[in-house]
Every structure is written in C-alpha cells, then in structure tokens.
Specification:
- The protein has 14 helices and five strands.
- By secondary structure, the protein is an alpha/beta fold.
- It has two domains: 135 residues, 3-Layer(aba) Sandwich (Rossmann fold), CATH 3.40.50; 119 residues, no CATH class.
- A five-stranded parallel β-sheet has the order 2-1-3-4-5, sandwiched between helices.
- α4 links the parallel β4 and β5.
- α6 packs parallel to α8.
- 38% of the residues are buried.
Length: 282
C-alpha cells in the first residue's frame, strides 16, 4: 500500500478535505487527496489513472460527505473503485439523505457528524476511527507509538476499564502534552464513573490541573463544560465557594457536537450532569 488514507470529496468541501489531509499528515499517516500540495495529482500519468491507483493503493477510504456529493458523479465513481473490504470512514457536514446509488454503498456505515462552527472535535474523532481501523484491519502495520497509546486509552475508557485507561492516557499525555483531547479523556478516566461530589479535594484539584490549561477557547468547549460539571458537582454540591472561572463563565458560548455529548453522558453520573442537559442534547 502506498497510502494510509484516500480522501474523497467534492470541490465545495475542499477546505475540509485539506484540513483532514493536513491532520493525517501531521499525525504521520500518509494521506492522498486530488490536487493537494503534497501527495496529490501530478501531470502524468492521466488524472483518472492516478485516481484509481490511489484508491486501490490506500488502506482507508475517507469520504467528506455533504449534499454536494448527491450532485457529483465523481463521488460515486470513486466509491465504486474501493476494494471489496475497503474500510470506510465518513465525516458528515450536513443532514442530507444519500441519493439512492450512494445509499446502496454507504447506508449502514457509521459516520462522524461535524459541526459547522467547529470542525476540530469531529476531525479528531475521524483520526481516531482511521487509527482504529488501521489497527484492526492491518495488525502488522507499525503505527506511531503515541497514536496507539491514545487509541488504546480511549478504547479502554469506552470499555469502562478506567484504571488501565488512566495509565495508558497518562503515558500519552507525557509524549504529547499539547493535545487537549488527551487531557480530556484522562480526566474522564480519572473520574471513572464516580460521583464527583464524593471525591477528595486533592482529586478534584488534580482534575482542574489537567483541564484548566487547555480550556477557555472556542475549540475546547467540551473541556470547559467538563470543568464546569466538576466545579458544580464538587464545590457547589458540597456548599463550597466555586473558584474562578465560575460555572457561567466556563459554559458561556459552549456548543458540543454529538460525539462530545455522548462521551460525557457515558462517563459522568446522571445526577451531576443534569444541570447541563441543554449542552448534552443530541
């Protein structure tokens, strides 16, 4: 295989495709998209030959889906060129229904929904899915150590194996301390499904030390919300003064995508997230 990922997209969604291409490349995955500046089309051989060759020689097929795909003959041609068992990851940019021939090939394939205002969380989820499928379908492939640690840590969290998830994600954050997702998942694993109100002050302060440095931006609203839940549950829940930034400041302007809401619902006690239900509806 020449590439880890082939990106299929329509021209109106080229900015998203380029964003994903750059994200894959930055994470040491070889990505191919038509007309990209690095691993894309060159003048010779012909475009169609290169396209078919790239699809058949890529491990994962990533589709940037929007309603524009329903009006593109190229997209269905690219989908038909996939190998029979080609693992496919879809990132959805809108809620439009597949046209019939697309539905034939794509119906039943899980997708990641992207928010218009904030692509980053969905892009990270797609990256996780690609790494997951590479590991599952190509077990002999040497993936970067940090990516395996992150994927395995999140998988252990999903399986509610919290102690092992903490150990794995702690290793990951040592290797890549700048990735806010690592701290988010590590904090959830540290909470481990427990009631935050009954945790010790030292445990809560450790969670705050993880989350505060990476909160407070438009792209990290999911982290700010988790921090708000922690402070509401522990400080307000026990009658203590909530330290700054307060709850309202933390949740101001927060909008979550479906995947972020789901992971919080899965690992935070229902009684402690109930006040924040407006952010967790999906």
């Amino acid at each position: 295989m020449l590439h880890d990922v082939f990106i299929s997209y329509t021209q109106p969604d080229r900015n998203v495709a380029t964003y994903m291409h750059d994200l894959f490349q930055a994470n040491q995955l070889k990505s191919w998209m038509a007309l990209s500046g690095s691993n894309g089309i060159v003048m010779d051989p012909p475009f169609e030959t290169q396209l078919v060759h790239a699809i058949r020689n890529s491990r994962i097929f990533v589709l940037i889906y929007s309603d524009y795909c329903n009006h593109s003959d190229d997209i269905i041609r690219e989908i038909r060129q996939r190998n029979k068992q080609h693992p496919t990851v879809i990132i959805r940019l809108d809620d439009s229904r597949y046209r019939p021939d697309l539905s034939y090939y794509l119906e039943g394939i899980q997708y990641v929904k992207a928010a218009h205002h904030n692509l980053y969380p969905a892009a990270c989820r797609v990256l996780q899915e690609v790494i997951k499928k590479l590991q599952e379908h190509f077990p002999g492939l040497n993936l970067p150590t940090d990516k395996l640690l992150f994927y395995n840590g999140v998988k252990l969290l999903d399986d509610r194996k919290y102690n092992r998830s903490v150990a794995t994600l702690a290793q990951y954050t040592e290797i890549d301390p700048d990735n806010c997702d690592g701290w988010f998942y590590l904090a959830l694993a540290t909470i481990g499904g427990r009631k935050i109100r009954k945790m010790t002050l030292q445990e809560v302060q450790r969670l705050e030390a993880m989350l505060l440095p990476v909160s407070g931006t438009k792209e990290t609203g999911f982290i700010s919300l988790l921090l708000a839940i922690i402070r509401q549950s522990y400080y307000a829940g026990n009658g203590f003064i909530v330290p700054a930034p307060g709850i309202e400041a933390l949740v101001d302007g927060v909008v979550l995508v479906r995947e972020e809401a789901l992971v919080l619902v899965m690992h935070i006690d229902e009684s402690e997230r109930s006040r924040f239900q407006q952010f967790l509806a999906y």
